[in-house]
Each structure stands twice: as structure tokens, then as C-alpha cells.
Amino acid sequence: MNLALPILVPVLPALGAAAGLATGRRYPALARPLAVLPVAVSAVLALVTALQLGTGTTLDAATRLAPTGGPEISLALHLDGFTSLISVLVGLVATCVQIYSTAYLKDDPRYPSYAALVSLFTAAMFLVVYSGDLIVLLVGWEVMGICSYFLIGHHWETADARAASLKAFLVTKLGDVPFLFGLFLLGADAGTFRIGEVLRVAAAGDLHHPTLIALLLLAGVAGKSAQFPLHTWLPDAMAGPTPVSALIHAATMVAAGIYLVARLLPVFLQSSAALVVLAVMAAVTMIGSALCALAQDDLKRVLAYSTVGQLGYMAGALAAGDRQAAVFHLVSHGAFKALLFLGAGVVIHAAHTNSISAMARMDGLRHRIPDAWWTMTIGLLALAGVFPFSGFFSKESVLGAAEHAAHGEALTGALGPASAVPQAVGWTVLVAGLLTALLTAAYAARLWLSVFYGRSRNGEDLAPQPGAPYSPELDEADPAHAEPAAMRLILWVLAVPALAFGVAGLRTDWLPALLDGESLRVSVATGVIGTGVAVAGLLIGYAAWRTVNARAAAGRPAADPARLLLGPLYRPAQHGFGVDRLYSTLFVRPTEAAAGLVRFLDRAVVETYVRGAGAAPGWLGRAVRFAQTGNAQGYLNALLAGAVLLVVLVAVGS
Amino acid sequence: MSTLLAAAGSLEPAARSYLSPTGQEIVFLLVGVLVLGAAVVSVTTRQLVHAALWLVVALGGLAVEFLLLTAEFVAWVQVLVYLGSVVVLVLFGLMLTRAPIGRSPDADSGNRPAALAVGAASAATLVTLVVDAFRSSWIDLSGPAGTTRLTGEFLFSHWVLPFEALSVLLLAALVGAIVLSRAKGDGTKPRPGNLRTVLTKTKER
Amino acid sequence: MHLAYPAVLAVLLFSVGVYGVLARRNVILVLMSVELMLNAVNLNLVAFDVWLRDTLHAGQALTLFTITVAAAEIGLGLAIVLLVYRTRRTAAVDRVTALGDRHEADDPADAAEEKEQAAA
To answer: What does DSSP assign to residue B189?
Structure first.
């Protein structure tokens, strides 16, 4: 097949970004076409590439950049079913986000740079997906990191956004440093950076330090994919514009970590210790984030924590050795989470607040924004994992993978022996997954009911309560007007995969043929249990909401349904179980203290030398100035004295 | 230097003692002491006009020294030019700048101690040097060395070109002195102040 | 005659001239001291000319030239002194310090002028 197509996919958005940055200030009218068109064309090209590639085939192409003397670094391309699937998802979500942004950031003066960065972000993700070389992959990986920093900090006028962008950058970098060393170690062990070669070496069991490599790589994955303990940047990243959240959460940044593990799964299968660590990480992330999501008041933070939890599912599936399920869930989650975020953008646009409790006091949001109501209902049902939405199938496939692993027959496919996955991993993921399914359904119900079925009491008006969390969108249109079509119609585009994508896993010759070929069909036992748990969660959420509403009707102050459900856990959950505070005590404050010390040393010690170096010539000059009296007699005197002195010196010296 | 000294042929061994001076030497020394004393008084006296007059004594003494060294023409030129014109010019200058008659307390600048040190140091250094170098040299004063006839011959046979160039230089100096000292045509009265102010005021007018 | 006599006399005369140039305040006295130094050189030139028996009599010729140049120099110097005196009302060499560093220059006339200009 023609190599130009897959090469153009990452190149086009990058060129678009460069053009957008170059022309944005002078020709603002060009910003919109330059933002949408390259990404859209890339999406189409990605789809065409996927169709041309078909199922069950792979394509590898490489050109050596420069002889390095060590392991070769080559500009390599690797295409298979996984890349096809994920690149189509990335293209779809990025196109939707760009179109949505044209309306959402209509009046933003920094729209051109914003759109260019989104394009660059997309290009970097395409690069990560298509790359056949670990170093090239790392380039895309780091470009995404810096783009996320800029985009989260888009509203840099607010202190929140500045802090959040810095935090996102630093926390992901914290993971990226071990990741870099992991890549080096992997390249050194395998003797090459080509992913195909690395996998061949790994499958043959010739890696010398599989556990060390896997753990180092996991640090980077935890940072990028927001897994415990490096998840703290993701909820704060909500300070960015909503479309950016959709992009980061659905398709690009967080998916990169999962995708990397899926690509390098044979390496991880070499080390059961790494799998156990991954499973525990996934389990803690899942349950903790679900509890946090239940307690959050900010609509976008609920979705952010739910993203963390769903990424935990994917990590769990990978720990169970089933990368098919992980990628399946990645894609379906990408679709419905992008939908949820863009829908949340519409809701926030209409309600003029981020606060769920404030929305709960508004009448009839579902009548004002019916598109958002319908599509978010679909998205939330998919999130909760209710049959027949896409989330159901993907989540059940994850749980099924965990169940197989728990029985010692992990679905590792051809990548490695089933015995590579310890049974404890399966049990951990299975139990945590079921518990998380219950909590997910509960917070989905709370979100849906509070946002769309609010009713105003005692004549409270629509104005946001003082102190309610509200992240200002500088570009917000008048909330009295209907949302632009570009924002509403995109929701329906994304609603289709959120609704129906799960079906793709039903037959082995549909989606699994694109992936590893194993069945993704839901087993009856897990299906029944999963559905039951989800329905139970929904009912619990509904019951709590009813109770709270009844109390409010009886005149007592209205409370959050989550407070009723969580009890004493409510407040810690609302603050993310104090992880931020812990990090602040453990790392941030010592770092700041060290910075203060350095600043003191710089100011008091180093600067003294610098000042002295400046002041000494000044004093010298002032001293020399005394000689410049303008009195010619004095000058002549000095001249003659010098001459005599020289003669005496020469005479004495000779 | 050694070749030069050898060529002179007058480097006789230092048979002549300083303790038995010739008559010429005695006169030279006496006049030299007079010249030196007049010069010292001239640079130290607080009366400005006296300084000029002591300078006349010193320069006249030097003319005698020239005569003793058989340079007749140079001696008369010294008398003519220095005593006749330079000292008169200096006296005119003192008069035109309204130098005070009588003792003026500020004849010496604040630089005097340093000047004394430099002068003494240079004197000590140079005297040491000169005495060390020419301790045993003897000048043969026999025969005419600088009569008017002889001077005219060498001056107009060997030194014509510098002589003419010097006359051009003198002309230039003459013109320059006239240009510099000519009063401004508009008759502005001089007033205390720096040059800049006077110029700007002139321009304003 | 010993060469040392005229040589030492010239050296001493020159040093007296140096002292006068450096110590005198009045510019005309400084010029006079310069004349002393020039005459010391003349004495040297004549003495060495006689000593060397130079066929070209370079020493005496140069002495004559020096005397001429000195006359020209004192003429020009006095013209400059008169000009300075006419504009600044002073012939003191340590009061003509307009080219010095302004902050160190304690020229009351300059300071007064500056104040005057600032007021105007």
C-alpha cells in the first residue's frame, strides 16, 4: 500500500499547527479552516489507511536516521489492527473537538494558538500510535506533555489554570524520567529501539532485566495515564477549556499510556511482579477515583475522576494480560467520554456554572438543552455499563479477562503463556472492577439526576451560589442564547459510537479480527453479574436522590445525595483522599523550602560576588576620577614622575 | 656611542684632574653657579616681575657660557633673541595679564611638594647618569668652533633646507599669534566665565 | 675643559626648569620655566658639538633652530595665554580645568554659570 497515506496522518496536523501559529496573529480568519481541515483530513486518511490495511496484516517501514554507534534509531512506522483502531478514534475525537472549539471558543482572542496546539497535540498522538520506534514514540509522548501544559494553562489569567498546568507538566514529567530510563534500558537489553525487534526479543525471553524495565515504564504510564499515585494532575487539569479536557481524556494523552503498555505487553508479561504492581495500581485507582467522583461537586471533576477510574479498568485488563479488552475499552471509553465532556461543556455553557449542586437547583435544564440531555444520557449509560451501550461490552470484556486470569487461564493470546499472569492479579482486578462498576453506576445516576432533574426551590434564581466552584470560560456566550449548532451536532456524531460500538466485539470476525483474534464476547456469568451490579448502582443513586429531595421538600436543607451514600467518607473523598495534601507535605513543601534556600544562597552569597564584581570597578573608577582634575600641571607632574621612575628602575635593574 | 667617542679622538686618558682646573673652567664654574642661582630664584620668587628679571640674568649667564665654549655666534643669538625679545615678550605678557606687582601669595600652585620631589629625583638621576658617563671626557677648546664666519658657512652649506623650513614655521607662528591675540571685532567686553557662555552669548546677539 | 661641567650644569638647569613648570601657578611663569629647560638643552648641544668637533656642526645648528623655535613657541604661548586670560579672567594654570571631571572640578565660576543656566 501507499506509504504516503500513513505518513501524512501525523504530518498534516503538525503542518496545520505550524501554519496556524505562523498566521494566527495576522490573518485570524484563516485560523478556523487551518484548525479543522488538517485534522479532519488526517482523520479521513487514518480511516482510509485502516481500510486499506484491512484485518490481520501489519505494515512495517523504516528509514535509518543516522548511525548512532549504539542501538539504531530509525524513523519507523508500524501499522496493525491496534493502530488502525486507535488512530481512527483519535482522528474522530480530534476532529469533533476542533469543530466544537470553533463555536466554544468563538470570541477567544487566543483561539489561533489554542487551535494550533490542539492540532499539534493530535499530531503527536498520531505519531505515538504509528511509531515503530521507541525513540520516535518518545518524541510524540513528550510533545503531548508540553502541549497539555499549554492547553491546560490556556486561561493563564487565572491562578488555578497556571497551577494546574504546572502540576500536570511536573507530575507527568515525574513519571517520564523513569520512563526514559526504562526505554534506554529496554533498548540496551534488546539491542534495538525498533518495537518489532524488541517484542521479538521479549517473547524469546532474552531480556535481562524485565522487571526493572517494566516498573520503570510503568512509572511513565502512571504519569501519562493518570494512574495512582500520579493521578493527581488529571482532576486539576479541568482548569483548561472543556474541549481540551475532552481531547486529553478521551483520545490522546491518557490513552497514550495504555496504548504503550498494550504495544509492549510481551515485555510486561515477562515479569509477574510488574503485572502485580500494575493490577494493584489499577485496583486502587479504580476504587479511589470512583469514590472521589461520587463526592465531587464540580461537573468536570466528576468526569475527570471517572476517566481515572476507566483508565484503571484498562490498566486492569492489561494486568490480566488481555490487551484486546484494554484497547476495546479504550476505544469505547474514548467515544463516550469525549461525548460526556463535550456535553458537559454544553451544560456548563447553559447553566453558567460548574457546580452540580447549583444545577440541582435549576429548573428544566433538560428542556433547555435537549441535545445534551439525550446524548449525555447515552454517554452516562455507557459509562455505567448498561446493556446494550458500548460501555457494557467493553467493561464486560475487561471483567471477563480478569475472570479468566483469576482462573489461571489468562487471555494472553499469542503473546505469552497464560501462566505468565498470576491468579491474584485476576482476582484483584475482578473484585475491584465489580466494586467500581457499582460506584460508577451510582455516581452516573447522581450526576444525571442532579443535573437534568433539578428543581428550583423557594424561588431561588439561576445565579450561581457564592462560593460554588465555577471555572470561568472567558469566551462564554450569553447563556440565554441557544448553543451553536457546531456544539450540539457534534454530540450526536459521538453518540453513535457510544451507543453502538460495543456490538463490534460480538463476532470474532469483526473487531477481534482487527486485534489479536480472540473472542471479545461477553460470558453469561460476568454479563449477568455486571449488569446486576450496574443496575444496583443506578438504583442506589436514584434512591439517595429521592431521599434527599424528600428531605428538601420537607423544608430541611438540601444535601448532596453523595453525602448520604458515603457518610464519613464524603469529605475525604471530596478532597481526593488527601493525596494532594500528602504530596504537598512530602514533596512540594520540602522542594519549596529547598528553593527558598537556593534563592537565599543566590541572593545573599552569589549575588554578593556579582555585586562586588560590579562595585569594585566602580570604586576603582571613582578613585581614578580623582586624578581627572583637569589641571594640566598635575598630569604633567605624573608624566614626568613616571618617566623618572622608569629611568631609575631601568638603571637599577641593569 | 663607543664608535662615536672613538671618532672624536679626544678621549684622552683622565690625566687631567678635577683638582687642578684651568682658568676657563674656573670662569665657567663661577658663571654656572650664577646661572643656576638666578634660575632657582627665578622659579621660586613670589614676585612675578622679579622672576622675569632673574630669568634675564640666567639666560645672559648662559650666553657667557656659550662664549666660553667658543660658540660665539650662538652666544650673540642667545643675547639677541632671548634677552632682547623673549624676556620682553614675557614681561609684556605679565603686564597684559595684570600680574600683581610685589609679592603675590599664590605664585606657587598646590603642586609644589610633588614638583620638588620630581625635580630633585630627575636632577639626582640625571646627574648620576651624566657624571658616570662623562667623568673622563675632555673638551679641546683650541681653535675656532663657532665664529660667525664658520657658522655662516656650515649653516648655508649643510643646513639650508631646515633653515628655510624654519623660516616658514616662524611665519606660521607669527600669523597664528596674531590670529589668536586679535580682539573680537564686535568689541565685546570680556567677562568672567567660561568660553562656552561667551560664545553662546555672542551667537544670541 | 671637562665635559662634565657643562653637562652637569645643563642637567641641573633642566631640573630647575622641571620644578618651575610643575610648581608655578601663573602660566607665564610656567612658560619661563620651559625656556629654562630649552636653554639647558641648548647648553648640552653646544657642549657636545664642541667636544665632538663635528664637521657639520649639527649641535650649533640645532641650537640656533631651537632658539628660533623657542621664540616662536613663546610668542604663540603668550597669545594663547592672553586669549585664556581674556575669556576666563585668570592666568592660573590650575584654574583652567574645564576638561576635568565635572564633579571633582571645583571651579566656582563654572558652578555659578551652571546655576545661572539652570535658573534661566
So the answer is: P
Q: Do residue B169 and residue B121 come from a single domain? A: no
Q: In order of start, what are the domains of chain C with their CATH numbers?
A: 4-119 (1.10.287.3510)
pLDDT single digits (tens) A50-85 = 888 877 777 888 887 777 777 778 888 888 888 888
Q: Which of A640, A646, A654 to mutate to test the interface with B (most CBs of B within 10 A)?
A: A640
> Range of B156's domain?
147-182
The answer to whether residue B115 is domain-embedded is yes
Cα(A61)–Cα(A269) distance, integer angstroms: 26
Number of structural domains chain B divides into: 2
Retrieve residue A133's grid coordinates: 520506534
- Contact between A386 and A531 under an 8 Å Cβ cutoff? The reply is yes
* Domain CATH number, residue B79: 1.20.120.1200
CB pairs under 8 A between A and C: 37
Interchain pair C93, A632: CB under 8 A: yes
The whole-number pLDDT of residue B1 equals 45
Is A519 strand, coil or helix? Answer: coil
B64-82: pLDDT as tens digits: 999 998 888 999 999 999 8
Contact call for residues A118 and A98 (beta carbons, < 8 A)? yes
Its pTM surpasses 0.95: no
Q: What dihedral do alpha carbons A355, A361, A367, A368 form, nearest 10°?
A: -50
Give the whole-angstrom CA distance, residue A504 versus residue A538: 26
Asked if residue B154 and residue B121 are part of one domain, the reply reads no
Neighbours of chain C (3+ CB pairs under 8 A): A, B
Residues B154, B98 within the same domain: no
At a CB cut-off of 8 Å and minimum separation 6, what does B58 contact? B35, B36, B38, B39, B42, C13, C36, C39
Q: Predicted ipTM? A: 0.80
